């Protein structure tokens, strides 16, 4: 037991000795570091030899790092002449969009195989037939009335001639006291009766012809509203048809766009036909590379109240016979050739900032900005009025939101 106590005492003494040695080492290191630091404010003045190293320190602090200038891509730009293009949007529509209604009433007794939605039909093609029994009877009655009226007119003409002959044989001079003597009123009545009977016959024949429903023009059947055996009243809807001879597109334009189009004589709007245009489908209907040639057929001589814009109308002839058919109801983008404009800049669309500004770099490398007066746009390029009078100007191709006028930058030239 005594030996165990002695062993523990020795172990604790050894631990305390190690702790004292470690604490002494820390104190020595701290004292050494303090001796290496410069003299405090209450120390004596440094010697001449000690001040030599301190004289070098100010020169080291004065050597500041060189500031790197922001690099911006610029395009050398000069004024030139470019042909304007006017771009607008619209929907293709058939020249005629007809809700075909029946002129007569009757039951549908026959339908043509081509009388189905989506089918293309020719002008005059028979689409359906109505029961025409009553109309044939009306024609027969009208013919009988005409024959009776013709007979009555012939008899009256003969009686009139006889009355005139008797008056001449009577030896009386002058004219009869009454036109009834020469049967003139009776003759006029017979002539009117014949004219009325002939018109009744013409109407009966026309009504009979309307029992045959025919296509009024070359077109496509959009919908058929009658069935075999159904009864159609006068004015009842039979079908919806779109003409196929040409497609028309109404394109509303702003005043600036109108200014870029060729000038026309307002008294002779046929000059608009000289304008050519190219159209292509947009949105989900777009087909890469597919275009159609069109021309301006007419211009509206009024401003639409809703949009406060004036429109022109483009035409595509025989749209369904194109290499790629152009269907009614297609949303399209139209590009119309305009006038040639002098002294404008051609820039990438990215050169116009979100705030609608153009940034340039002057000869001193300083940024400058001005409002972008865009004349027209074409194929990811913008054409703007020059913002400076210099012959060649460095325009920033991709301005950043943190640009500030007067900022020093390093321009890097990139061609368009």
Automatic annotation (TrEMBL):
Domain Multidrug resistance protein MdtA-like barrel-sandwich hybrid: 101-240
UniProt cross-references to Pfam families, sorted A to Z: BSH_RND
Name of the protein this chain belongs to: Efflux RND transporter periplasmic adaptor subunit
SUPFAM superfamilies assigned to the protein according to its UniProt record, in alphabetical order: HlyD-like secretion proteins
Keywords: Signal
Keyword Signal: yes
Source organism: Shewanella youngdeokensis
Keyword Ion transport: no
InterPro entries referenced in this protein's UniProt entry, alphabetically: MdtA-like_BSH, RND_pump_MFP
Region (Disordered): 37-60, 155-181
Biased segments, Basic and acidic residues type: 155-169
Range of residues in the leader sequence: 1-30
Family of the protein in this entry: Belongs to the membrane fusion protein (MFP) (TC 8.A.1) family.
